[in-house]
From TrEMBL:
GO cellular component: plasma membrane
Organism for this UniProt entry: Takifugu bimaculatus
Keywords, ordered alphabetically: Acetylation, Phosphoprotein, Repeat
GO biological process, one term: intracellular signal transduction
InterPro entries the UniProt entry points to: DEP_dom, PH-like_dom_sf, PH_domain, Pleckstrin, WH-like_DNA-bd_sf, WH_DNA-bd_sf
Domain DEP: 136-221
Keyword RNA-binding: no
Residue stretches making up the PH domain: 4-101
Protein's UniProt name: Pleckstrin
Length: 222
């Protein structure tokens, strides 16, 4: 049975011989990361096995080159990838971490299904809800927030999201608002920004959105 493909897209990769950085088409499967010279190529330029591998993000080995993450194989070979923006890097890192965890635990990678796991009603349109939340006049306000001497731009708290959903009539109560917010996060419309919210998103079999004033989140650009 062929390994399940989890994520694919262009990233910039550091060469192992010439040390140059070039865009490659990257495909993450359950047990490996393959990279191609271009999307239409049928054979990969290289393959990184994930069994026994480790992941480091952010990787700050290259000074001013930002948004880099590093995969180190069990044979201690380093592979460096650079994303074009923070949201892209976080999505890749999140899926690679889950793939590594599944390999270590002997489990099969299963992408979170919002409708199955938290039973969102079929009438809920998360894309439409995301657009309403992003509205400049009547949506969730994006702020500059400081937490533990770190500054987060264009962020908002989990409590703000839950309160907005109830006030705007998108949810009947706090538990329903929390369910919707979790759905938005699991489907990639919202991402955690601070340590507390990242712990909630990465813990256990199912991500958890936190209805707290010190849990920070931000919108994914679409």
């Amino acid at each position: 049975m062929e390994p399940q493909e989890i994520r694919e897209g262009y990233l910039v990769k550091k060469g192992t011989v010439l040390n140059t950085w070039k865009p490659v088409w990257v495909v993450l499967s359950e047990d490996a990361v393959e990279f191609y010279k271009k999307k239409t190529d049928r054979s990969p330029k290289g393959m990184i096995p994930l069994k026994g591998a480790t992941l480091l993000s952010p990787c700050q080995d290259f000074g001013k080159r930002l948004l880099v993450f590093k995969i180190t194989t069990d044979k201690k070979h380093d592979h460096f990838f650079q994303a074009s923006h923070v949201e892209e890097r976080e999505l890749w890192v999140k899926d690679i971490k889950r793939a590594l965890t599944c390999i270590q635990g002997g489990k099969k990678f299963a992408r979170k299904s919002t409708r199955r796991s938290i039973r969102l009603p079929e009438t809920v349109n998360l894309c439409e809800l995301y657009s309403l939340m992003k509205d400049q006049d009547d949506g969730v306000r994006e702020l500059v927030l400081e937490q533990e001497k770190r500054v987060f731009n264009h962020c908002f708290t989990g409590a703000t999201v839950v309160e907005w959903l109830v006030e705007k009539g998108k949810a009947r109560n706090q538990p329903e608002a929390l369910m919707l917010a979790t759905g938005l996060m699991n489907e990639g419309f919202l991402l955690p920004a601070g340590d507390l919210s990242k712990d909630g998103a990465g813990g256990g079999e199912q991500s958890t959105f936190l209805d707290e004033t010190n849990a920070l989140y931000y919108f994914v650009s679409r």
